[in-house]
């Protein structure tokens, strides 16, 4: 994490201390910069305080106006103590504050903190330094022109070089991250520092005036490419300081120009600093980008390699080079097995396989022909008793090569799986048929004794019995009828789901009369509960051509559910009306209703809602599945259950066509929804 980021997100007290320290240092360095300027000059040769001021604002976070004010007063104090004119002091102080604010604003605009991690960040940093130093140069140039009568263009460019070089040399030390994208041996660090120091001394020593000013760039680029970026920033600052001091002492290639005027020497030195700083920063940023890209590529390669190695299909990834060679980049075990190999020869991955006519490539004639042609296509491979389909695809690259991908599918294994699935389906169908046959057989066997029990219970009801015997007879009759209903439901469900369903013939009848008869029967289901059944039927007959028994069973089951779940003295409503080309039957109750989370499950076999309002109601959970199957499969209609508009109870809507003819029976097992909620 960079210095400005670490301090900026740290404790407020520590952050304020660092900001104050940087401002004080900027003031001190400003004083010495003014003191060391050439005699009579209105402009200092170099202004390192610009970098410190921008760093102070980057650290401040949210208090930049106060920090900029501190820079204003620090610069004014330094200029005043150095004996500058009051006008220059005020103008330069304002320029320093505005410059630091502009640089900090550009570097952090749209970001939580300033960073110099990649080339794009370095480019943004360069823009910030150009704009910031340009703003200061404009303010300072006008000030020098008005107060000190200096030429405007000379003052502007002198200040621009001084501040821009200071920003690119000093500020990176506070913004660059200390992390590195690789381990560097300490010996290499010591060697690089020693080489840079020796080259700097050789170029700028007082006894040297050779024109080799840019020789230190060699060692600096070494650091930029290998060492952490923060080390590079520190070396840039040390190089700038050493080159400036040694040049003032008369050493180096820039010192001879002092005789012709200090301004030439200053500009040459500033250019030297700017070139070295920017070159090192951009190389370091590119190295960081390359390191991050390498990490992403390695992660993707590892993911791809794992997928290829563990893939069930054979996969070969190769490069078709521009010299007609096929270099294998990846091959998994399944592909080796399809090719009849234990392992791939090492030369496949190094020199590659020559794509020469008549010479084998991977050992299969059809596949080799595709690879030599460089075209996409399919080939068939046979290995022992197994057959493979190989699909070849080619993607050209910009540098004259192409990526070739071969996917080998085991056709034999795929056929074995398909055969296994078909056999499983046949077994399931047989088991389902056996289940239906068993249910039908057992139900028929149960029906005979239950019918006998019901007959004798009816005879007992006609006899004069004592209270205890009469109670026993009632219990026998009630449970016998309940068992008969269960048997009938099971038989009906078996008929609906059987592969040889017997379909009754449709006939014309009056649906209104059928509903009235069903409502009358429902009134006698639970006479002690005094359930009121209200019908809302048309005045005229409603003729339909349907299977009467199926419609009757649907209405009877729905009415039975509605009466069963209605409270004592409750009301059940039955309605009939037109609906498009068909008719709609509605049956509603005022019972507890069906909770929304149970609605998707009420059509499942034996499904019952397990709460206090539903648990005690008699039933097997087969009524609604039978209704659903009859409406969907036999009557070709649609049924829905929904809450009553009043919020209490359930409303069933049955949409039926006015005329339907049963479809011919099929040998397949129909898939039908199952079970009951009410």
From TrEMBL:
Topology in membrane: Multi-pass membrane protein
Primary location: membrane
Record-linked InterPro entries: HATPase_C_sf, HATPase_dom, His_kinase_dom, HisK_dim/P_dom, HisK_dim/P_sf, MASE1, Sensor_HK_Regulatory, Sig_transdc_His_kin-like_C
PROSITE patterns: HIS_KIN
Transmembrane stretches, start-end: 17-34, 40-58, 65-83, 89-110, 122-148, 154-175, 187-204, 210-229, 236-259, 265-286
Keywords, in A-Z order: Cell membrane, Kinase, Membrane, Phosphoprotein, Transferase, Transmembrane, Transmembrane helix, Two-component regulatory system
Listed EC numbers: 2.7.13.3
One Gene Ontology CC term in the entry: plasma membrane
SUPFAM superfamilies: ATPase domain of HSP90 chaperone/DNA topoisomerase II/histidine kinase, Homodimeric domain of signal transducing histidine kinase
Annotated localization: Cell membrane
GO molecular function: phosphorelay sensor kinase activity
EC class name: transferase
Catalytic reaction equation(s): ATP + protein L-histidine = ADP + protein N-phospho-L-histidine
Residue stretches making up the Histidine kinase domain: 441-660
The protein's name in its UniProt record: histidine kinase
Organism of this sequence: Microcella alkaliphila
């Amino acid at each position: 994490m960079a210095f400005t980021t670490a301090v900026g997100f740290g404790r407020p007290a520590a952050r304020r201390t660092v900001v104050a320290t940087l401002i004080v240092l900027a003031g001190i360095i400003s004083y010495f910069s003014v003191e060391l300027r050439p005699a009579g000059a209105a402009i200092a040769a170099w202004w390192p305080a610009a970098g410190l001021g921008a760093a102070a604002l980057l650290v401040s976070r949210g208090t930049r106006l106060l920090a900029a004010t501190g820079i204003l007063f620090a610069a004014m104090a330094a200029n005043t103590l150095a004996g500058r004119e009051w006008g220059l002091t005020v103008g330069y102080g304002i320029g320093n504050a505005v410059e630091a604010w502009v640089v900090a604003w550009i570097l952090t605009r749209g970001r939580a903190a300033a960073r110099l991690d990649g080339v794009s960040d370095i480019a943004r940093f360069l823009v910030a330094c150009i704009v910031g130093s340009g703003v200061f140069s404009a303010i300072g140039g006008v000030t020098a022109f008005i107060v000190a009568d200096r030429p405007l263009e000379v003052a502007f460019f002198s200040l621009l070089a001084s501040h821009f070089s200071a920003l690119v040399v000093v500020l990176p030390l506070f913004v660059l991250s200390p992390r590195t994208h690789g381990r560097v041996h300490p010996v290499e660090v010591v060697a690089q520092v020693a080489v840079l120091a020796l080259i700097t001394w050789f170029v700028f020593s007082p006894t040297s005036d050779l024109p080799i000013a840019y020789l230190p760039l060699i060692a600096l680029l070494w650091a930029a490419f290998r060492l952490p970026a923060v080390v590079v920033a520190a070396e840039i600052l040390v190089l700038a300081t050493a080159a400036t001091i040694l040049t003032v002492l008369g050493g180096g290639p820039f010192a001879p120009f002092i005789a012709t005027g200090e301004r030439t020497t200053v500009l040459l030195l500033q250019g030297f600093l700017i070139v070295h700083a920017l070159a090192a920063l951009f190389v370091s940023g590119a190295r960081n980008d390359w390191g991050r890209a390498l990490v992403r590529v390695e992660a993707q390669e590892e993911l791809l390699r794992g997928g290829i190695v563990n893939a069930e299909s054979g996969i070969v990834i190769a490069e078709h080079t521009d010299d007609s060679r096929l270099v294998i980049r990846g091959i998994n075990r399944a592909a080796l097995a399809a090719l009849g190999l234990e392992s791939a020869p090492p030369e496949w991955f190094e020199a590659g396989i020559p794509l020469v006519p008549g010479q084998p490539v991977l050992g299969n004639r059809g596949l080799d022909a595709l690879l030599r042609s460089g075209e996409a296509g399919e080939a068939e491979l046979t290995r022992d008793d197994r057959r493979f389909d190989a699909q070849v695809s080619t993607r050209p690259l910009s540098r004259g090569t192409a990526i070739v991908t071969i996917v080998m599918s085991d056709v034999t294994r795929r056929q074995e799986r398909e055969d296994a699935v078909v056999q499983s389906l046949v077994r399931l169908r047989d088991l389902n048929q056996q289940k239906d046959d068993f249910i039908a057989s057992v139900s028929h066997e149960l029906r005979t004794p239950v019918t006998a029990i019901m007959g004798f219970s009816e005879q007992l009801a006609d006899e004069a019995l004592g209270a205890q015997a009469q109670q026993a007879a009632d219990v026998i009759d009630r449970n016998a009828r309940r068992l008969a209903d269960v048997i009938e439901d099971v038989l009906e469900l078996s008929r609906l789901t059987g592969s040889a369903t017997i379909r009754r013939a449709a006939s014309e009848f009056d649906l209104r009369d059928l509903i009235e008869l069903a409502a009358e029967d429902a009134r006698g289901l639970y006479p002690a509960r005094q359930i009121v059944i209200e019908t809302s039927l048309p005045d005229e007959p409603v003729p339909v051509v349907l299977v009467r028994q199926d419609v009757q069973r649907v209405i009877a089951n729905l009415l039975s559910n509605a009466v069963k779940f209605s409270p004592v003295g409750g009301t059940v409503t039955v309605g009939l009306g037109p609906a498009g080309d068909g008719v709609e039957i509605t049956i509603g109750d005022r019972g507890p209703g069906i909770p929304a989370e149970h609605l998707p499950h009420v059509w499942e076999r034996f499904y019952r809602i397990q709460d206090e309002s539903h648990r005690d109601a008699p039933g097997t959970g087969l009524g609604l599945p039978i209704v659903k199957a009859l409406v969907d499969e036999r009557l070709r209609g649609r049924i829905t259950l929904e809450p009553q508009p009043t919020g209490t109870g359930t409303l069933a809507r049955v949409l039926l066509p006015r005329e339907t003819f049963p479809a011919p029976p099929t040998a397949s097992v129909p898939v039908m929804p199952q079970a009951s909620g009410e």
